[in-house]
Prior knowledge:
By secondary structure, the protein is of the alpha/beta class. It has one domain (about 5-300): CATH 3.40.50.720. Helix content is about 35%, strand content about 15%. The protein has 10 helices and 13 strands. It has helices at about 20-25, 75-100, 135-150, 170-180, 200-215, 230-240, 250-260, 260-265, 275-280, 290-300; strands spanning about 5-10, 30-35, 45-50, 60-65, 110-115, 125, 155-165, 165, 195, 200, 220-225, 230, 270. The strands form 4 sheets. A 7-stranded parallel sheet has the order 3-2-1-4-5-7-11, sandwiched between helices. The chain has a two-stranded parallel sheet with strand order 6-13. α1 (about 20-25) links the parallel β1 and β2. It starts with 5 loop residues before the first strand and ends in a 6-residue tail after the last helix.
Amino acid sequence: MRHPQSVAIVGVSGFVGHQLPGLLAATGVSVTGVSRSSPRAIPGIDHWQSPATLNLAGYHAVINLAGESVAQRWTPAARRRMLESRVGLTNSLVAAIGRLPAEERPKVLVNASAVGYYGDGGEADLIESSSPGRGYLAELCGAWEAAAAQAEMLGVRVVRLRLGVVFGRGGLAYERLRRVFRMGLGGRLGSGRQWLAWIHLADLHAAIVHAVFSESLRGAVNATAPRPERNATFTRLLAAALHRPALLPVPGFALKLALGGFGGALLDSQRALPQALTSDGFRFKYPDLEAALQNLETTGKPSGT
């Protein structure tokens, strides 16, 4: 028997995932959290499941946000963890769905991916039909999306969300940048001309909820604000929001030396546009980077940890 409006969230304890249960619960949805770690108090979660004993029978939707952080040195061990936590886990989810009778399978799988799929796009507008790029992140995202797409053959609507850099208080990327800029040490990365695909956490949450319920949305979906900015512009706006100077540019070679492959990825240009979301009627609350940064600084409250 199908549970009415029930959603399972994999990676629920992470920065993006831990606020989703409350948002979904507010719409009348029953939420199950899926986590390897010990369950913790997260508002909106009705039940918990372990990945080892995962049973998805009767759920309306599965949201998969799990994945080892790429913000680290890409050692061979780190690459194995990043691959297994994305491709391996997604394969396991699809296999679990495939073992169910057709009438018991979830209706939709919303699976995270990233704009790293496009590699270095230069000045091109990157929409969902754009070709994949080159490099480790592009290959990782391609394999991740291919694993999720297998669920389509099981009659499941699949939404592959290509996330831009998520800006939210408490998030690793934003808080690290914020700390550096507050010390007066911020500056553009490399030339500063590379495009930054970004999204406010509140808009990402809204996009995920939209993907769960909009039956017309499927396939690759850029989860990025409609107005990307160049790195130099982002640097100036963040410094202004924090009332700090932005005087110390970071040379590209220094980034690569300090952070290895991840440092090189920070120099990639990705002018990703959310064509699929906007065509499906989604409206952004924070389409403009300056307004988004001002919101994050005036609220003054971390959105997660």
